[in-house]
Amino acid sequence: MSKSSPRRPFGGKSNGTITVIEAKVHRSSARNARLAFILTAVIVGLLAAVVAASYMHPILALFLGALIGVPLGGLVWVLVRIWPVLRLLWWWTPEIGVTTFLGTGWVQLANHTPMPVTFAVVALVVGVPAAVPVTRRVLVAWTWCFVVRHRLRVCFAQFIIANQSGSLPLILWARPTPVGERVWVYLRPGLSLADLEGRLDRIAVACHASTALIERASDGNAAYLRFDIKRREVLTAQVGSPLVDVIDPATPATDRPTPAVPTALDLPDVDIPTVTLPAQKKPPATANGSKPAASSSTPEDDISDWI
Amino acid sequence: MTTATAPTAGVPVGPGLSMFDPIFVGIDEFGHPVYITLAYRNLLAGGEPGGGKSGLLNCIAAHAALSVDSRLVLLDGKLVELGQWEDCADAFIGPDITEALAVLKRLQLVMNNRYAWLRAHGRRKLTAADGLSVITVLVDEIAFYSATVGTKQEQEEFVALLRDLVARGRAAGIPVVAATQRPSFDIIPTSLRDLFGYRAAFRCTTPNSSNIVLGHGWAEQGYTATDIAPSNQGAAYLIAEGGIPRRIKVAYLTDGQIAGIADYAAWIRRPRPLPALVPDLTRLDLGAAA
């Protein structure tokens, strides 16, 4: 319990060294737990005592209040201390649920049916979705959604920690898109959209994706973001225009006067032209002060583009 | 009640599109159609040669040609990119900056008249109910007019006129769609480039070029047209209504399809070329369509 609390807020399991922030967080976790214990015990105890005072002697009521408040405070203390573990369990809930479900299903099936039937059922349950392209793609896409949520959490835990308590952004739901996944994230204090935009390439790498884009998901709340993870290019096919179907194919072609067909379509057919340079070349030679102005035009290129 | 058979060679009826309708330009990464409403907007397309800029221009030209309340003014230094729309365009300018200047001046006059008309009616912008046509100005290879042909004065005049159209034409129903490969300041003055509200960046070779088209800072946020594969023609980043670049694939019209739409548009529009003397662009062209 106490071992997991310092490492979980960062997800940095492999780091053997304990940094200052980790120690700080560990301390803050212990302090939070103590505070929660005291607050809960006092408030619940007092409340219980006040209520109990209407039925018994106040001193007895106080004892009763303490009897109720202290265990409840202890419960809260435990909850706060194991909160990192609970959070970890919460993060992996879908996976745990699916694994439990599949395992139970397999055991039940194996216990209640003969071997050939078991294998037939498994072959059907696994084989049919895998064989039908549509269901296979849907399954793979949703699997990627789960993967990406974990990968994003790794991103936030490994290299986007921004506040002192090391709290991670809330990674909300994810859903597949034709190009990859879209994940909604609610930032905690300490991060902003601009911070994340500087790390798009690293986020893409962490998510095993091609590129990543981040947009605001809400006009009124800067903390609510949308991550677009792209892992494939879909806009490769040719797109037709619906206007083609609007027109009448039996349209009489407009009779155009045949234009004079140009000749001299190859290089030898064209005479050598007499190139005369414009007479504007003289002024720069005379003007002494215009030299720096002329030379500054090239390096100015990129700057002026933005002006 | 008797029913009469429809005449076989009847009057063709337009498909009922309007320039105030959203224009279909392609699909986005989620397979959703992408529409832009161009009536009050200007669009700048940039990107390397063969990226698909002309595809976008042809898409818009096709919609404009099939719209009842639309007039097309085409400026195409290459003649072939928009050349197939010549029959349904009210003005088609090839590589001739004098003609380009003339038509831009006429457009400026029309714009002034329209603003005077709007003022007289106590209004601020043209709507679909006004019955006035939206004059879509399509410029392919804007660099040809602003930096290649003509004298320095002519080029500056072209840029000044176009800037005026882009700056003021919005509410008067004169949208400008311009395409060029790299709209850096030596091709188009930044004062003109920054006026374009909608941007489409086709494949670019450097993030810098992508930023020039889309606007400063988008490449740093991950929206850079360099990540479009060279073989993926027509893929682009589009900044339109949402304000955030969207990866789109522009709908592609083959030469045959363009010819078909152009013929049909010419058929239903019965085009009248611009009268030489009196600018008549403000009149609704319903008489000609009947």
Write the layout of secondary structure elements.
The complex is a heterodimer of chains A (307) and B (290).
Chain A: H1 4-7, H2 20-53, H3 58-81, H4 83-91, H5 93-112, H6 115-131, H7 133-159, E1 170-177, E2 180-186, H8 193-197, H9 200-206, E3 211-216, E4 224-230, H10 243-246, H11 282-286, H12 290-295, H13 300-306
Antiparallel strand pairs in A: 1-2, 2-4, 3-4
Helix pairs in contact in A: 2-3
Chain B: E1 23-28, E2 33-36, E3 43-46, H1 53-66, E4 70-76, E5 91-93, H2 97-120, E6 134-140, H3 142-148, H4 152-168, E7 176-180, H5 190-193, E8 198-201, H6 207-214, E9 235-239, E10 246-250, H7 255-269, H8 286-289
Parallel strand pairs in B: 3-7, 3-8, 4-5, 4-6, 6-7
Antiparallel strand pairs in B: 1-2, 1-10, 8-9, 9-10
Query: Mind describing the biggest β-sheet of chain B?
Result: 10 strands, mixed
Choose one word for the global shape of chain A: elongated
The CATH topology assignment of chain B is: Rossmann fold
Straight-line distance between termini of chain A: 58 Å
Structural class by sheet pairing and helices of chain A: alpha+beta
Biggest sheet: strand arrangement of chain B: 2-1-10-9-8-3-7-6-4-5
Based on helices, strands and strand pairing, what is the structural class of chain B? Answer: alpha/beta
As laid out across the biggest beta sheet of chain A, the strand order is: 1-2-4-3
Oligomer: heterodimer
Enumerate the spans of chain B where pLDDT stays under 50 for 5 or more consecutive residues. 4-11, 277-282
The number of helical elements of chain A comes to 13
- CATH class term of chain B: Alpha Beta
The first-to-last residue Cα distance of chain B is: 27 Å
Can you tell me the residue ranges of chain A where pLDDT is under 50 for at least 5 consecutive residues? 1-14, 289-300
* Helical coverage of chain B, percent range: 25-40%
CATH fold type of the domain at 132-230 in chain A: Threonyl-tRNA Synthetase, Chain A, domain 2
